[in-house]
Amino acid sequence: xxSETLASTSSTTVSLPQQNAWIDVYQRLHxxxxxxxxxxxxxxxxxxxxxxxxxxxxxxxxxxxxLKEQLVKVFTLLKPGFLFQYEPELExxxxxxxxxxxxxxxxxTPGNSLMxxxxxDERAITMRGKHVRTGLEGPGLTTSQKIxxxxxxxxxxxxxxxxxxxxxxxxxxxxxxxxxxxxxWDFLQRVEGFYKAASFSNLLIFLYTGRYRSLIERALRAxxxxxxxxxxxxxxxxxMNRQLVWNEFSxxxxxxxxxxxxxxxxxxxxxFSRDKDSASATDExxxxxxxxxxxxxxxxxxxxxxxxxxxxxxxxxxxxSFRCSRCNEPVIAMQRFGGSISKTPQS
Length: 347
What we know:
The protein is α+β, with helices and mostly antiparallel strands. 52% of the residues lie in helices and 7% in strands. The protein has twelve helices and six strands. A hairpin with a 3-residue loop joins strand 3 (297-301) and strand 4 (305-308). The longest helix has 30 residues, at 180-209. It is elongated. The protein starts with a helix and ends with a strand.
């Protein structure tokens, strides 16, 4: 029995695996394993706040205006109107400075920095096959994108401002209908209308998708994304809340003050006044409205307190039921000092 087993074992040839066989198996199975792992992972979409993007643009405008105000103060000793003719150049210079020390050196603009935003090259992001969080990862702008951004935002605005001022100074719109200047004026108006329509369409698309707040960003595929995952926006709302409260309070005062009668309020608060003796000892020969000696003295009837004619006449015409500023009695008529009685306008 043992001999038969040994004979059968010797008859069968045992094939040993090659030394690098596991490497071949790994190279054959690795792509399949990677595809399975990638398919199991899900992307983390992070939407960029539209409010942050709009606020960043507004902050950039405000900062540029503050820099312009400080720069204008340097030339205050020059003759008036000196900077008016160079205003487009001044604005272009300030915009270039902001671009040079922010976008050109791969840093966010002051408004974007406050809103925790930065520019990303959207052309380098292919969402298929790559797991990129929408609002964080991605490379910055290329050199060509930075240069084109400067030419469009700084140079384009400067050229357009100069064309508008030059055409208005030369009165291209008032020239003859078939003249070359009038045709160029019509062309500029059409370009401006087309740009406004395109900007409005881009605004609607931006409100719907949250991408590319301006036409320049859409043309260059420069998208605003979050610069840091640790904060959403670096703005304190305390000053903003105080400003809103003060604005609402001032609007309420502007609404209520014209409706208040100062003389009536004074009469109501007079009993609570501490200085009653001084109030009772006031000179009754002066007009209680203007606190001066009446040039054309008139009596308010029936209380017979003395007023200036124009003070008493205007108050009676403005208030339907005017009351005397001294005794709070209704004034039904007015009489000149030593003259006849005349009715008030409301009576």
